[in-house]
Amino acid sequence: MKLVRSKLGDLNAYLFLLPSIVVLGLFLIYPIIWSVIVSFKDIKPIALKTAGLFEIPGSFVGFDNYAAALHNPLFFKAVFNTAYFGVLFIPLSVFGSVFLAMLVNQKLKGVNFVRSIFFIPYIISIVSGSLIFMFLFNGDKGLVNALLQKLGLTGPNWLANAVWAMPVIVLMSCWRNIGYYMIIYLSGLQNIPKDLYEVADVEGATKIQKFRYITWPLLSRISLVVMILLLIHSLNVFQEIYIMTGGGPGDSTITVPFLIYNRAFKYYEFGPAAAMSYLLFIFVVGITIIQRKLVERRLG
Amino acid sequence: MKRSNVLSTVILWAIGILFLIPVYWVLASSLKGDLEITRFPPTFFPETLVWQNYPDIWDKLKISVTFTNSLLVAVPTVTLTVLFSSMAGYAFSKKRFLGRDAMFSGLIATMIVPPTVLLLPLYFIITKLGMFDSLLGLILPFSVTVFAIFFTKQYIDDIPDEMLEAAKIDGSGDFRTFTQIVVPLIRPAITALVIIDFVQNWNSFTMPLVLLQSEANYTLPLKLAVMLQNSDNIPWSKILAANVMSLLPALAVFLVLQKQFVNGLMAGAVKG
Description:
The complex is a heterodimer. Chain A is an all-alpha fold. Chain A has helices at about 1-10, 10-40, 45-50, 65-70, 75-105, 110-125, 125-135, 145-150, 165-190, 195-205, 205-220, 220-235, 240-245, 255-265, 270-300, and strands at about 40, 60. Among the domains of chain A are: about 1-10 and about 15-60, no CATH class; about 70-125 and about 170-270, MetI-like (MetI-like fold), CATH 1.10.3720. Chain B has one domain (about 55-270): MetI-like fold, CATH 1.10.3720.10. Chain B starts with a helix and ends with a helix.
């Protein structure tokens, strides 16, 4: 008895953990397990209505849901669009936030004030931000087209244009997020020892060399975290699509989360929706591991 | 040296203004009249300031109800998250128990699970628990976050063990130690967490979209989205006025507490 007790450790710890165990167990761990199982099942919405909490109805269909997802041309379109968003959004955000972090890390006039300005969009919800950008990029009364007209150009109806809709959504996401990542990079910059730059100055290094050989390599750990966060963000683009374009025009802005939402809550196809979300998950895990490996190799 | 500083300052302010244009534009446009808002090219400053847009849309959409709903969700969720997560953070940081390290790394690993994966099962589980179309369904399931546990644990790690042992010798029980010593010592972390979590809950859209049905229960982002989809008869100036009202509370919290917020985030980033 005493041995069991000493193995379990401090019993009060379990009391402190109790609320977290209940909430996370029921609303995080169980959902993860639930959707793995459902992704292998053919579930009728009606059967789900009468099922108990820990009961998952339907018959096992093996990898049918996964096969169906992989044979759905719309899924590939969504994967392509999601990747397109990431390819635009991740580099723009990384370079934007590093640039701004280096800018606000200097002693300039009003730097604290402007730093707060950069952060304000992050406080604005995606829904509000989407509304603001819809209005800015409105085809016949938007500010952007008015400015273009001043330059003698005619702007398109941005969000109703298959070429321009996604870049506008990316722009909104950058505007909302760069301030947040700037803060993270800023803390990294402030941890770089000053004498490294002094040595570089003695050696006569240029600004670009200092960035290339000191700043950027020493930020690589933070960059890894930032890139993983940006990747996860890219794979979760849903609200801005729902508000701004509804996936259109011509499916050009359908993303994987938007497709999953539609499959699940519009067509009640739970199995395929769960399978798609697991393909997404496997992809995140894969990329995270590869990214970590790459950075570790570079850091030695 | 001097000249490059001037250049940097100019670039800094230019980008700052660029970042503010959308915010200025939504404010200015929300004060335009119904006719002025449709004009092209638009006026850069409203010809007459139509403050009436605000009370108009407030009454028309019954935003007072929506506003209350948003507060009723955000305030309890934040309170519970801070309490429950710092309790767990304390246990993970200062207690020895079976499976501690495995449990903690397991939790951290769940942070890469895309929320989209959880959408469907959460809808099912919350409905089964009888919390569909109720504000409770937006509070309890989200009253602990892995991020908050991780965040508070980082700070509790910095409290010297000797301090807690001294309290124990003086006869302080675990819960008293937690409330009287640990919580006051991690005040900065808790302030930062309150803001991060408040903004997140205040702005939450996807879960309310999936979990709420009756309009009387809508929270602000959901109401805005629905309003936009039936917007044919509402002028943009009023839509934007509603939008401004929805972002004011989060903005106010940020502006009042921004120093703690930014410092907390930066400290968290360094440690993480």
